[in-house]
Amino acid sequence: MGRLVPTRLVPTRLRGLRARLVVAFVLVAAVSALTTASLTYREARNAILQRSQDIAVNDLRAQINSLAPELAVPPSQSDLDFFRVQLERSGTSRDWDISVHYSGVPDSEDSALHGGVMVPADLRESVEKRHVPVFQRIIRAGDPWLLIGMPVRQADGKASALTVYAQLPLSAEEANVEALVSAARGGALPVLGLAVIPALLAARGVLRPVRRLRQAAGRLAKGELDTRLEVKGTDELADLSRNFNDMAAELEESVAELRRLEANARRFAADVSHELRTPLAAMSAVTDVLDEDAESLDPDTAAAVRLISQETGKLARMVEDLMEVSRFDAGAAALHLDEVDVAETIRKTLQARAWQQRVTAELPQDVRARLDPRRLDVVVANLVGNALHHGGEPVRVLLHAPEPGADRLLIEIADSGPGIDPEVLPHVFDRFYKADSARARSEGSGLGLAIALENVRLHGGTLRAANCPEGGAVFTVDLPLRRAPEHTTADDGRDAACPGTEKENDA
């Protein structure tokens, strides 16, 4: 038995629109050819048999009219036999057999048709009652024959007692019909083969605009918004091309407007941040002085002073974050690489913010890398601060010493909180995104994780967020030991801070 081939192994080209159009075209051609051949066969067969039948009837009538006047009335049996022989000889070219019947004269043994086939009773009855020529097609030994019953009329036009029956083979006519069928069959295969050519041409004419539309859609998806199609004709495909061009034009206008609005928004944020920086600096200086004298003030005034100081600090940090994001958007952020001790840099970050008691750090020594220490400080500070504010203590910072020959550096920050909602996880690095339903409302700007991500990308690394099976969220910083902005790595999707965790979000 032949082995079945799975559908997925069949080439796509064989299951494409071109193949279906060609197959449909050939099937239509085949059905049309078969239908035409069937109708032609039926009409040709009927025409050939009818022509042979008419000729035989006319010939028999002519011979009877020529020989019947010489027949004695009433004839004897020998007269009838002689009359039959004369008719058979006169029809040698048609090779017919004759049987003669005369009312009142018994039939002789030779009156039966050649081959022992007697005249059918229904044919004889029809001739005797209607007194008109009657013909009938029969099959004898698998061969077609034509039976003709013809009453002989007298000179005055009245029916006589003489009736002639003739039988002649139709093998020659059937052979002609078979030859016609064979010729049609032989010509059908080349016609079907030739039908593939117009089918391919038709498929090409249909698929060419579709292919152009597909290519144009691909270019549009890649951001080439000025892509347009050349419109030819007035058919449905031309209308589709016009609609595509209209859609592309509207999309280009919409995207241009969105980009303009986005650029204005970024420029506005940068300008506002820059303008706020000077007065905030003055406000911060004043609040620092007020903080020093808060102990000497009455309790209500001291509380108001401390509140103003806190809110001024938050506003200052928000402005700094906005300016930092603006620098990333403008492409003005630059790396100042230096050979640093990674563990010592992380330790200083925790010490500078007094997080030593709240954070458990596993920092192996002698892990050195070429990084920007200020930006690494921002990354660790934002991730640890996010874990403390939104997760749960204790927070763990793990530095993985790279294996010999490895070119990647992994830093993981994990908390002990409830983790991140799966619906929120894809958006944790979005700017100004705050997942109120997943975590407590943030008191920050909503830019901390986005700034951390941009700093990691600036180093050519990746920042991932995931959930640990036992609870809590973990953020993994993956940095190259040598700066390689275009470098990509294959990750197994598992985080050491929570073994068994599949990677859930990769920014």
From TrEMBL:
Its cofactor is Mn(2+); Mg(2+). Keywords: ATP-binding, Cell membrane, Coiled coil, Hydrolase, Kinase, Magnesium, Manganese, Membrane, Nucleotide-binding, Phosphoprotein, Protein phosphatase, Stress response, Transferase, Transmembrane, Transmembrane helix, Two-component regulatory system, Virulence. GO terms for molecular function: ATP binding; phosphoprotein phosphatase activity; phosphorelay sensor kinase activity. It is a multi-pass membrane protein. GO terms for cellular component: plasma membrane. PROSITE patterns: HAMP (PS50885), HIS_KIN (PS50109). SUPFAM superfamilies: ATPase domain of HSP90 chaperone/DNA topoisomerase II/histidine kinase, HAMP domain-like, Homodimeric domain of signal transducing histidine kinase. It comes from the Bacteria. The keyword Coiled coil applies. Its main location: membrane. Pfam families: HAMP, HATPase_c, HisKA. The chain crosses the membrane at residues 21-41. Residues 485-507 are annotated as: Disordered. Residues 271-483 form the Histidine kinase domain. It is found in: Cell membrane. This is Signal transduction histidine-protein kinase/phosphatase MprB. It comes from Streptomyces chattanoogensis.
